[in-house]
Structures are given as structure tokens and as C-alpha cells.
């Protein structure tokens, strides 16, 4: 029996930074399902619009009352009238909302309004089909089933950039327990190392330096990336995981790109301004000194030339890490295509609120996979207790995700959900493997014969 939407309500709720966000509650004949929308701080200029009540003084102009109103007064009546079956028509629903908006960047209704509905529809569809959300999303994406791939969790344990008050320009320094054998073990390794890092920081800088940034990572008074990576080396060693935990960085460099230069002293005025070539050299130097397996947004969102040159030169670099586009590609098939043509990167950061519907995010992931890119699912720095992306990661077989430190409720809810999924799959006798060192290519594990339904037309149903 199909599942039709009978009501959609929305409300303003808080995200992890204490800013308002959109919560959607959608009811079908099978129950009521929610979607809570995350929000970025180092937002790319090409992202779909996050609608805020800028003309109001409430919450400092960050209210989302208009987006809530758009859900209840525009999206809800139109969607209910269409009588879509949420079990089989997620793509049609998402396409319909895009049409209803009618602009390229969801500027009329707001990506935050549309995404909340899309997430709730995905959940309602899974419930109607009586399958877990990850399985529903897997079927939506046309991804292979066996084995289920549990992702390597990339824990952001040192926060800088616009996510913290220290002087480090680089935004995120991450731990990746590639040497674990399961997500459960990986979480333990990450949490133990996080605690070891706290001890290391306390010893070096005193207990006052163990305050944390927006994603739960520590934010000690350091400026240089090498200082951050040295702290990780020490913490990993202290926790007993040397060789089993590798590193990743998201400098989020669009935030410190000024007039053609990368200003590493953007926060403390003492570190150098680097040319694109100088910053490229710095990255390559760090690759030789530390076990870095992934580098995200090394260059600014429109500095295409430097991205392409860095990738070209990367062919000569032994063990070149995965180079992931975030602000560059914004989970948008048009930007992903451009990045593929320009050979600018080989990994896609997947943030559902950058594009504003679940279907379009899946399309971007499939396009990335079709070019043998990696796909790295991501939370936002302003998160909620919604754990949707855990299921998305497993359903799409992306092999890796980042969702902050192994601390703070809005971060651990995703890691806990991943451990639940792993337990559930194992208990039901399903074939399940941990991506480990193969996190970049795990998507195609188990054979390529079925392939993926690559929707070169975003809504290619
Ligand atoms: P944001 O940061 O959510 O603040 O954009 C995350 C990232 O840059 O990857
Ligand atoms: Zn990023």
C-alpha cells in the first residue's frame, strides 16, 4: 500500500551553536517522520541558499521563521495535493520542490526549508517499505548491496579557522583509524586518542587550553599545521595506535584566501602569506612528514588553476592523499562536472544541505563514483541531533565520513548510529566489512557488474 503525505509541519529549533534551524515533521499513514537541518560556518559561496530572517533582530538576524513558513504554507499544501508515494517517489518529490522554488540555488524557498522535507520524506519512505533508512537510500542510489561497507570515521580533534578562537588558520585536523577492523573498534580508537590528546595538550599548554571548537575538537593556542600534526603524532603514540591511525586536514582555505594569496596569519597576523605555489609546497612537505591520507579544500573555491596544477603534480608524489572538494564542488553536479573536466580533485565532500535535497546529493555522489572519485560524507559545523548522514554513508557505500570529534551529542549521535547499524547487520547475518585503508575505493567492493544508476540528469528517473 503506498504511503501518502497527510500533513507537514515545521518549527524553528536550535542547532549545536545555539542558532535557529528548521525542523520538519511529516506524517503519512505509516507514522510521523522528522528532518532537522544542519548549518555551516565556512560556507561555500556556491552553496544553495540557507534562508535566514536577516531583516529581523531575533537571534541576531539568524532566525528561520520565513523558511518554516515556506514549508508550512507553500511546500506542504502543494506536496500533499500531488499525492506522491513517498516509498517510491523521493526523486519526483525532490524534483517537484525544486520546481516549486524555481531558482537555481533554492533562493526562493530556501535549501533549509526544502531539505528538511526531503529528509523526512526519505525516512517516511523507508518506514513505509519497512526497511532501514540506509537500505532505502542504497536502493535510491542503485548502489551494490554485499558486502555492506562500514565507513572509516574521520574525527576532527583539533579545530581552527572559523570554528574556534585559537590562532590556527587551518580549520580541521582529523584522525582516521584506518587500521581498525570495525566501526566499533574505530570509534574506540578515536575516543581513546582524543582523550590522550587532551592529556598532551594539558601538559603542554595547561588545562585552560582544552576548550573545544564548534565540532568538539580541541583548540589549543597553536598556529602552524605542523604544530597540530605533531600533537596528533604524540597523542596517537600515547594511545598505542601508531601505524593504525592516519591523518587528514581540511584547511577550508577559501576562508583565508585574500587577493590571490593564502593568508595563514588571518587570525594572528604573524604567520606568513603564501602564494598558491607556496601553499602547495607546504602541503607536499607535510605529506612527506606525516601520515596524511586526505586533504580537503586545499585551495579556494574558485582558484581552479591551483587545484588542477596541484593534482597534476600529485602524480609525481608518492602516496598522494585523496584531494577532496568541498567549497569547490558544493555537492552540486554542475560543479562536480567542472571539477572532473579540470581534473581539480579526486574526492567529493557530500553535504546534503549544500544542495538542499537528498536526491540531488545522491546524484552528485553517483557522478563522483562514476569518475572513480572517493565520496566523503560530512556533517556541518552547526549540527543537530539528527543522525541521517550515518545511514546515508552506509547506503551510498562511501567508505568514509567526517562528523566531528568523538564528543558532543550532535557528533556522537552519528557515530553511535553507525555502531548500531554495524551491530544490526552483523546480528542479521549480513555480509559487512569495514572500509579501513580502502576507504577511497570501497564503493566498488563486491564487483561492478550491477554498476550504479548514474543520473547525469540530476532527476534522471
Ligand atoms: P562548515 O565546515 O560546516 O562550517 O562549512 C565544514 C567544512 O568546511 O567541511
Ligand atoms: Zn570543508
From TrEMBL:
Entry-linked SUPFAM superfamilies:
Enolase C-terminal domain-like (SSF51604), Enolase N-terminal domain-like (SSF54826)
- Residues bound to Mg(2+): 250, 296, 326
Q: Where is the active site?
A: 215, 351
Q: Name the EC number(s).
A: 4.2.1.11
For molecular function, the Gene Ontology terms on record are: magnesium ion binding; phosphopyruvate hydratase activity
What's the source species' lineage?
A: Eukaryota, Fungi, Dikarya, Ascomycota, Pezizomycotina
Q: What is the organism field in this record?
A: Hyaloscypha variabilis (strain UAMH 11265 / GT02V1 / F)
Family matches, as InterPro entries: Enolase, Enolase-like_C_sf, Enolase-like_N, Enolase_C, Enolase_CS, Enolase_N
Q: Where does substrate bind?
A: 163, 172, 296, 326, 378-381, 402
User: Which NCBIfam families does the entry mention?
Assistant: eno
Provide the family line: Belongs to the enolase family.
GO biological process, alphabetically ordered: glycolytic process
Q: Which residues form the Enolase N-terminal domain?
A: 5-137
Please state what the protein is called.
Enolase
Amino acid at each position: 500500500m503506498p504511503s501518502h503525505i497527510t500533513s507537514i509541519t515545521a518549527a524553528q529549533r536550535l542547532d549545536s551553536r545555539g542558532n535557529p534551524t528548521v525542523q520538519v515533521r511529516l506524517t503519512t499513514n505509516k507514522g510521523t517522520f522528522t528532518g532537522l537541518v544542519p548549518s555551516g560556518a565556512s560556507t561555500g559561496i556556491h552553496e544553495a541558499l540557507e534562508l535566514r530572517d536577516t531583516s529581523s533582530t531575533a537571534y541576531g538576524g539568524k532566525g528561520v521563521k520565513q523558511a518554516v513558513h515556506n514549508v508550512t504554507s507553500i511546500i506542504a499544501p502543494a506536496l500533499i495535493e500531488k499525492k506522491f508515494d513517498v516509498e517510491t517517489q523521493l526523486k519526483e518529490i525532490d524534483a517537484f520542490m525544486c520546481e516549486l522554488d524555481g531558482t537555481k540555488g533554492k533562493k526562493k524557498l530556501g535549501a533549509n526549508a526544502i531539505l528538511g522535507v526531503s529528509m523526512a520524506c526519505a525516512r517516511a519512505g523507508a518506514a513505509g517499505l519497512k526497511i532501514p533508512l540506509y537500505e532505502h537510500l542504497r536502493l535510491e542510489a542503485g548502489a551494490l548491496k554485499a558486502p555492506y561497507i562500514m565507513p572509516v570515521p574521520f574525527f576532527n580533534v583539533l579545530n581552527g579557522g572559523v570554528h574556534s578562537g585559537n590562532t590556527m588558520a587551518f580549520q580541521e585536523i582529523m584522525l582516521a583509524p584506518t587500521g581498525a577492523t570495525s566501526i566499533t573498534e574505530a570509534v574506540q580508537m578515536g575516543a581513546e586518542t582524543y582523550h590522550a590528546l587532551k592529556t598532551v595538550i594539558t601538559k603542554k599548554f595547561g588545562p585552560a587550553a582544552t576548550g573545544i571548537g564548534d565540532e568538539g575538537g580541541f583548540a589549543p593556542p597553536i598556529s602552524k599545521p605542523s604544530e597540530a600534526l605533531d600533537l596528533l603524532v604524540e597523542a596517537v603514540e600515547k594511545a598505542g595506535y601508531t601505524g593504525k591511525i592516519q591523518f587528514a586536514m581540511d584547511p577550508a582555505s577559501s576562508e583565508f584566501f585574500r587577493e590571490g594569496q593564502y593568508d595563514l596569519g588571518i587570525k594572528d597576523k604573524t604567520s606568513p602569506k603564501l602564494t598558491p605555489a607556496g601553499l602547495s609546497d607546504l602541503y607536499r612537505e607535510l605529506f612527506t612528514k606525516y601520515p596524511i591520507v586526505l586533504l580537503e579544500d586545499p585551495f579556494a573555491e574558485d582558484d581552479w588553476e591551483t587545484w588542477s596544477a596541484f593534482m597534476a603534480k600529485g602524480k609525481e608524489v608518492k602516496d598522494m592523499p585523496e584531494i577532496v572538494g568541498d567549497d569547490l564542488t558544493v555537492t552540486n553536479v554542475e560543479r562536480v562536472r567542472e571539477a572532473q573536466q579540470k581534473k581539480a580533485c579526486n574526492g567529493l565532500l557530500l553535504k546534503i544541505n549544500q544542495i538542499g535535497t537528498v536526491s540531488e546529493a545522491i546524484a552528485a555522489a553517483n557522478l563522483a563514483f562514476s569518475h572513480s572519485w572517493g565520496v566523503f560524507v560530512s556533517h556541518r559545523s552547526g549540527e543537530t541531533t539528527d543522525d541521517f548522514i550515518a545511514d546515508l554513508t552506509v547506503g551510498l557505500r562511501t567508505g568514509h565520513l567526517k562528523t566531528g570529534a568523538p564528543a558532543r551529542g550532535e557528533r556522537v549521535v552519528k557515530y553511535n548510529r553507525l555502531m548500531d547499524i554495524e551491530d544490526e547487520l552483523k546480528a542479521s547475518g549480513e555480509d559487512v566489512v569495514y572500509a579501513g585503508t580502502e576507504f577511497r575505493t570501497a564503493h566498488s567492493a563486491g564487483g561492478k557488474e550491477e554498476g550504479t544508476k548514474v543520473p547525469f540528469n540530476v532527476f534522471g528517473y
